[in-house]
Amino acid sequence: MTTDAVQDHPETPQSRCWCCGAQESDSDLVHLGNHPEVGICIRCAGWVRRRARELEDRHSHGIPARLRGLVRGARATVMAKGWHERGPLGALLRRIDRYLP
């Protein structure tokens, strides 16, 4: 490889997720508005979103909040029993989990 080829494709700066420590391209991290130095990966951003929704639901007693509570309970049971790590069943449960609130 020539030096010209290396200069034509500069490496993207790598950063670490402030939550899990995964190394990602800086452009692939979610940055906080008032603290742009803080970046979290997409997986951790999804976890933060779920956690924020859980905190909101503590003060809400509507049907959607109750349904999300049932989903959280089912998720906790699946993880406690380790079903999410079991071959095809685990793969199916992880796939379903991507689409749940």
Compact overview of the structure:
The protein is mostly helical and 101 residues long.
Q: Please report which band the strand proportion falls in: under 5%, 5-15%, 15-25%, 25-35%, 35-45% or over 45%.
A: 5-15%
In DSSP terms (H or I, runs of 4 or more residues), the helix count works out at 4
Ends: how far apart?
48 Å
Can you list the strand order of the major beta sheet? 1-2
How large, in whole angstroms, is the Cα Rg?
19 Å
Number of domains: 2
Percent of residues in helices comes to: 40-55%
The low-confidence runs, each spanning 5 or more residues with pLDDT under 50, are none
SSE topology string: HEEEEHHH
Oligomer: single chain
Largest sheet: 2 strands, antiparallel
What gross morphology would you assign?
Answer: flat
- What's the count of strands? 4
Structural class from helices and strands? mainly alpha
Mean pLDDT over the residues = 84
What are the key terms here?
4 strands, two-stranded antiparallel ribbon, single chain, 101 residues, 4 helices, 51% helix, flat, mainly alpha
Topology, element by element:
Elements: H1 3-8, E1 14-16, E2 23-25, E3 30-31, E4 39-40, H2 42-57, H3 63-81, H4 87-97
Antiparallel strand pairs: 1-2, 3-4
Describe the structure.
The protein has 101 residues and is mostly helical. The chain has 2 domains: 7-40, no CATH class; 60-97. The protein has 4 helices and 4 strands, in the order αββββααα. The protein has helices spanning 3-8, 42-57, 63-81, 87-97; strands spanning 14-16, 23-25, 30-31, 39-40. Strands 1-2 form a two-stranded antiparallel ribbon. A two-stranded antiparallel ribbon has the order 3-4. The longest helix has 19 residues, at 63-81. The radius of gyration is 19 Å and the shape is flat. It starts with a helix and ends with a helix. 4% of the residues are buried. The mean pLDDT is 84.
